[in-house]
Amino acid sequence: MKKTSIVAALTFAFLTSTAHPAQAESPIDPGYEVKFNLDLDAFANQADIINAFNATHDEDVKVYYFDTPDQTFRDQGYIHRLRVYASDKKTNITYKKVFPGVSVQDAIAEATAKGFHNDMSNYKFENDRKEGTDTFSISRKETFKQNKKLTFDGIDVDYAINLFKDEAPKKYSNWDNEDWYQETLSQTIPYGPALAKTYEGQYLGIDADVEIWTYKGDTIAEISTKVSDKELADSIEETWLNGLIEAEWLSEEQTSKTGFVMDK
Prior knowledge:
This protein is an alpha+beta fold and 264 residues long. The chain has helices at residues 2-19, 46-52, 72-75, 104-113, 157-167, 170-173, 178-186, 230-247, 257-262, and strands at 31-37, 56-67, 78-85, 91-98, 124-130, 133-144, 150-151, 154-155, 189-203, 206-215, 218-227.
C-alpha cells in the first residue's frame, strides 16, 4: 500500500507540474525618457523658461552624488544619487547602473545574463534619449522619511554613505563583487549639492518636465518626458528636436545632469 501511495503521489505531482508549468521570466522591455538641454542664452531669465513651457512649480530638491575622489564608480557605470526635498516629501536614494558606449541591445543582453528580467517591479529599465546618445540604464529607488541627518539645509555624510551601504540591493552590489563594492562605497565623498527646481509643463502638445539645476555658479535647464512605447519616443524626439532648433532654444551642450555636477 505504501509503495502504491508513493507512486500515485509522484504521478499526481508530475501531472500537476506539466499542467501548470513555471511561468517564464519576461524579457527586459525598457521605458523611454526623451530629454534635451535648453540654451539659456535664448531666454531672458528663468521665469522666461518657465513661461515658454507653460510650466508650474513642482519641487525644490537638493541633489548629491556619491563616488570616490577619482570617480571609480562612475568609470564602471555605477551612479549613487541622494535627493532631499524642500517640502515634507520623503528623501530618496537611487542606485543606477548605466552602459555608456554600449548599444541598448548589448546592454540588455548583459543585464539579462546577470539575472535581470522585466518582472522585477522594484527595478526600472530605461532607454535614455538625448541628442547624440541612446543609453540603457537600470535603476532602483529607496525612499525614507526625512530625519535630522538628511535635511534640505545639509546632510550627515557618514550617515548617507552607511545608508547606501545598508540598503544596496544584492543584485546591484553583486554586479562585479560585493566586497569591492562595499569597500569602494566606504571611500566615497559627496558631489553637490546641486539645487534642482522642477516644474510640470508642456511642449508642442506633449507633457514635459522642466528642470533648472544650479551648481557652483552654473545653471542648466532640461525638458524631458517619459513614455513606454518606442515609436512614440521616436516621434517625440524628432518633434522636440525640430521644434527646439527652429525656436533656437536647443543647447549645443547636451551634457547629463550627473556630468553637470560631477565634472566640476
